[in-house]
Amino acid sequence: MGKSLTDIARQLKESDKKVELVYAFNGTGKTRLSREFKRLAEEEITDEEQSELTKKNILYYSAFTEDLFYWDNDLDNNEVRKLKIHTNSFTKWVFEDQGQDQNVIANFQKYTDEKLTPHFNQDFSEVTFSFERGNEEQDGNIKISKGEESNFIWSVFYALLEQVIETLNINEEGDRDTEKFNQLKYVFIDDPVSSLDENHLIELAVNLAESIKLSKSDIRFVITTHNPLFYNVLHNECARIKHKNYIFKKLEDGEYELEAQPNDAPFSYHLYLKGKIEKAIDTGQIHKYHFNYLRNILEKMSTFLGYQQWGELLEPVGDDYNSYITRLINISSHSKHSGEEVIYLEENNKRVLGFLIKKIHELYRFK
Length: 367
Fold this sequence. Notes:
By secondary structure, the chain is α/β, with parallel strands linked by helices. It is about 45% helix and about 15% strand.
């Protein structure tokens, strides 16, 4: 039986884990979940007389954060392109109160190019970009790519996050250089990697995990993503932190499910398929489509290990048996006509499937 989005958000909010890592396909409702979590968190605030930043108990990054930044493309003259900034309490704190603009620039250049340089105007309401060539020449007022823009916006958020963690690591509130973060309890980060290439995605995941590991306060982190690589890197990097992994699903009836995952295994589609086959073998419910699962596993393994053909992975099973197995997998996982499709398998073929899964597990040392 599914749950409402509010129930899922409440489940995440009431957890005792330092980090909750949530994987979901695009369109599942990650951003809606983040907004619902934010709403529940803000309901805890009772003192309305504090300043906007001081009374906040959640630091929040999502598509709505990115909406604070928008382009003025100078359509009339096509010369001065600016990234405009909707000032709010957080951007005001980062740029005006704490002068974090240089840290933002440093983070941005680390994720992009050391020659790609942001230039803020005096009140930090807009930023332009130039490409410094190192020979007193520069390409000014360029429009950066969507990926670079995402990097820049993340760099603004990350500069604030680093300061929050450093400040809250000071146990005595009176010893902190600001009281503005004292009520912060949650950091919710919704899919910061939507436009990143794999290299920068991994770097961002590692840096984020390092910052989380530096956090000694009670602040908790919820991170959602649609990207399996980002999910797996964070999973591995947070292995020594008290954390929980989930897959977030939207059910056919419109409700939701938050499926807990074992912390000793990352999420990978081929591992998921392997688990499905093993469950079918254990319950005796083996069908023809399980050979499709097996072929999918072998194709992904062969790509990862550098083999040209997935059949090469079966060579250690034995030359005489290998051709029969390959033919059986091909026949069972490919057919041109609907009349050939029957879900049931002969008992011998069921034994072959069980044998293959066992041998693959042994040969390639699946955990």
